[in-house]
From TrEMBL:
Compartments in which it is found: Cytoplasm, Cytoskeleton, Flagellum axoneme
Matches recorded under InterPro entries: IQ_motif_EF-hand-BS (IPR000048), IQCG (IPR042618)
Source organism: Ooceraea biroi
Name listed for the protein in its UniProt record: Dynein regulatory complex protein 9
GO biological process, one term: cilium organization
Any coiled-coil regions, as ranges: 246-301
Lineage of the organism: Eukaryota, Metazoa, Ecdysozoa, Arthropoda, Hexapoda
Keywords: Cell projection, Cilium, Coiled coil, Cytoplasm, Cytoskeleton, Flagellum
Family: Belongs to the DRC9 family.
GO cellular component: cytoplasm; motile cilium
Chief site of localization: cytoplasm
Gene3D superfamilies: 1.20.5.190
Length: 354
C-alpha cells in the first residue's frame, strides 16, 4: 500500500470542519458501542506499534495450557467482540486524529497509525512465513517422529501447539488488519480527493486572479497612453513658455544692463561731486578752524579786559572810599556839605507842607 505523504498545515476553516466531522463520528461510534452485544475488554490495547511477539506472544515459560488460564485474549473472537474491538480501535484512532487536528491542524497520528499498520502487516507477513517454516519443520519433525519414534510426547505436543498457535495468529492478524487496511485506504483516497479539490479551487482562484490582473493591466495601459499624450502636450506647452521666457529674460537683461551702465555713470559723476565737496569741506573746515581759533583768542582777550576792568573798578571804588573817608581831594569837607544839604532838604520839605 502506498503511504500518504505529509502535507502542509490545514487552514483554520478546514481544521474546524474536519474536527466537527470527527466529533460526529465519535458520537456515532459511542452510540454503536452500546448497541453491540459485547463489552469492552480492558486487555484490548490498540495504542502504539507492537511487534508480533508483543501482540501474539506468550510467556517464555507458560505454566498453563489454555490461553484463558494464561490471561491472554482468545485467538478467534466472536463476531460481537470483533465488532466491539474494531469500534474501540477506530474510536481511539479518531480521538488522536481529532486532538491533532484541533491543536496542531495536522493528522500526524493518522500517518503514524498507517505506518504502524504497515509495519504490523509486514511483521504478520514475516510471521506467516515463519509459521509456514514452522509448519514445514513440524512436518519434518512429524516425519522424523514417525520414522524414528524416539521423540518424546511433550516435544510433539509442544510442536503441535506452537504450530496451531502460529496458524491461529496468522489467521487472526489477517482478519484484524483487513478491516484496518481497508479503512486506511478509504481515508487516504478521501484525503487525496480533498487535496485534488483543494488544488482545483486554488487553480480556479489563480486563473481568476490572472484574468483580473490582465484587465487591470489593460486599464493601466490605456491610462498610461492618455497620461503620455497629456504629458507630451504639456511638455510642448512648457517648451513654448520656456522660449518666451528666455526671450523676455534676454530683453530684460539688456534693459537692466543699460540701466546699470547709466547708474554707473551717475555714480561716477556723484563720486566726482563728492570729491569736490570733500575738498570744499576741507577748505571750509580750515576756515572754520581759523575762525574758531580767532574767536577763542578774542574771547580770551575780552575776558582779560573784563578782568582788568573789574580789577580797575574794585581799585577805583576802594580808592574813592579811601578818599571819602579821609576827605581827600574833591571830597574835602564832604561831611559838612552833606549836613548842610540835609538841613536844606528838611527846610524845603517843611515849606512844601505848609
Amino acid at each position: 500500500m502506498e503511504l500518504i505523504s505529509p502535507v502542509d498545515l490545514l487552514t483554520p476553516l478546514e481544521a474546524a470542519a474536519i474536527s466537527r466531522v470527527l466529533e460526529e463520528c465519535l458520537e456515532q461510534l459511542l452510540t454503536v458501542g452500546f448497541v453491540i452485544p459485547a463489552s469492552v475488554d480492558p486487555r484490548w490495547d490498540e495504542t502504539g506499534f507492537k511487534t508480533v511477539d508483543e501482540a501474539y506472544g506468550v510467556p517464555d515459560e507458560p505454566r498453563a495450557i489454555f490461553r484463558e488460564d494464561m490471561g491472554l485474549l482468545p485467538l478467534v473472537p466472536t463476531a460481537a467482540e470483533k465488532m466491539q474491538r474494531d469500534r474501540n480501535y477506530v474510536r481511539r484512532v479518531l480521538e488522536r486524529v481529532l486532538r491533532d487536528v484541533r491543536d496542531d491542524r495536522k493528522f500526524d497520528s493518522l500517518q503514524e497509525e498507517l505506518d504502524s499498520i504497515a509495519r504490523k502487516r509486514e511483521g504478520e507477513r514475516d510471521l506467516e512465513t515463519s509459521a509456514r517454516a514452522w509448519l514445514n519443520r513440524a512436518g519434518q519433525l512429524r516425519g522424523t517422529l514417525e520414522s524414528s519414534k524416539t521423540a518424546s510426547a511433550e516435544d510433539t505436543e509442544s510442536t503441535i501447539r506452537l504450530a496451531q498457535e502460529s496458524d491461529a495468529a496468522v489467521d487472526r492478524a489477517i482478519f484484524l488488519n483487513s478491516g484496518k487496511l481497508g479503512y486506511a485506504e478509504r481515508w487516504a483516497r478521501a484525503r487525496l480527493e480533498q487535496q485534488a479539490l483543494k488544488l482545483q479551487l486554488r487553480k480556479t482562484d489563480v486563473l481568476n486572479g490572472l484574468s483580473d490582473r490582465s484587465k487591470e493591466c489593460n486599464a493601466e495601459q490605456i491610462m498610461s497612453a492618455e497620461i503620455s499624450a497629456y504629458l507630451e502636450a504639456d511638455i510642448e506647452e512648457k517648451e513654448k513658455q520656456i522660449v518666451a521666457w528666455t526671450t523676455r529674460y534676454s530683453e530684460e537683461l539688456v534693459r537692466r544692463q543699460q540701466e546699470i551702465d547709466e547708474l554707473k555713470e551717475k555714480v561716477d559723476k556723484q563720486k566726482l561731486e563728492m570729491d569736490e565737496m570733500r575738498s570744499l569741506r576741507d577748505e571750509q573746515r580750515e576756515l572754520i578752524d581759523e575762525y574758531i581759533s580767532e574767536e577763542r583768542r578774542l574771547r580770551e582777550e575780552a575776558e582779560h579786559r573784563g578782568k582788568l576792568h573789574k580789577a580797575a573798578t574794585v581799585i577805583q571804588s576802594r580808592w574813592r572810599g579811601h578818599m571819602v573817608r579821609r576827605e581827600l581831594g574833591k571830597y574835602k569837607n564832604l561831611r559838612k556839605r552833606l549836613k548842610r544839604r540835609k538841613k536844606l532838604s528838611k527846610k524845603f520839605r517843611l515849606e512844601a507842607k505848609r
